[in-house]
Amino acid sequence: RSSRFASVRVSKPAGAPCCSGDEMLSCFPKLGGASSATQLVMFGLAGAGKTTLLYRLKLDWKDITNSMKGIKDDDPGYHYEELSSSSSPLGTYGLWDVPGSQEMVPLWPMFYRYITVKGVLFVVDGSDDKAEKLTEVRRLLEKLLNEDELRMAAFVLIVNDKTDEDSGKSKEEMEEKVKSIEDQLQVERFRKEYNCFHCVTLNCANTSENDRKWKEVLKIIKDNQVSLASK
Q1: DSSP annotation of 186
Q2: CB neighbours (10 Å) of residue 94?
Q3: Residue 209: which residues within 8 A CB-CB, separation 6 or more?
Q4: Which tens digits make up the pLDDT trace of 104-143?
Q5: How many angstroms separate the CA atoms of 130 and 72, rounded?
Q6: CA–centroid distance for 93 within its chain
Q7: At what angle do helices 64-71 and 50-59 cross, to 10 degrees?
């Protein structure tokens, strides 16, 4: 493989207090805590596909979907991986995978109040268009978009298209689901109200670091940084 990775994995029990700022900084691979990598944080409700995406990117894990079925219920902690690729628009970047359980959602601010976050990825399960769940997702999105600490960050809503997984849905059915999800989340309104907001559809279980869609996500974040620097 042409890429080189430096990584560190951190887990916390779902009911445990979130780490302090110093403890979070100590997660970084470099001595002294702080990392020069561009920091991205990935949010989303439980089961959306966040951890699947993280380790598909890091390990190019072909059978990650089946493997995750056996461990996801026993792994309620958050994870951090640092990735580096010569083809990445961001060069080296750190990606935080933050659980979306009821216990962890109130603690999300801890992940951007101690770290300068350049990009927020919000992953949504593309096979589930239940109104109750999407209303909660829309509320959380709106809250994050109005956080002072994230006002300079790029936002990318990732709709996880599970066409090739065990969803039992055809490609056409999944496309209809994705459209329904985007409509219920009011994606067009967010695009008009927030210049930093974007929406991308990809399959978290089939995405690699060289995937066109993933490069699009990273380019969105890079372009946002360039735009801010030019002002």
Answers
A1: T
A2: 26
A3: 3, 57, 60, 83, 85, 87, 88
A4: 999 999 999 989 999 999 999 998 999 999 999 999 999 9
A5: 22
A6: 13
A7: 130
Other Cβ atoms less than 10 A from the Cβ of 139: the count is 10
pLDDT digits (tens, 9 = 90+) for 155-205: 999 999 987 655 566 778 878 889 999 999 999 999 999 999 999 999 999
Give the closest residue to 33 by CA, choosing from 22, 18, 44, 46. Answer: 22
How many helices and strands, by DSSP H and E, does the chain display? Answer: 8, 7
**Residue reference for tokens 């994050």:** 144
What's the rounded Cα separation, in Å, for the pair 231 and 229?
6
Asked if residue 214 lies in contact with residue 202, where contact means CB atoms within 8 angstroms, the answer is yes
- Supply the pTM of this predicted model: 0.82
Helix axes 131-145, 171-184, angle to 10 degrees: 50
Cα separation, 231 vs 220, whole angstroms? 17
Strand segments, DSSP code E, in the chain are: 4-8, 38-43, 79-84, 92-97, 117-125, 154-160, 197-202
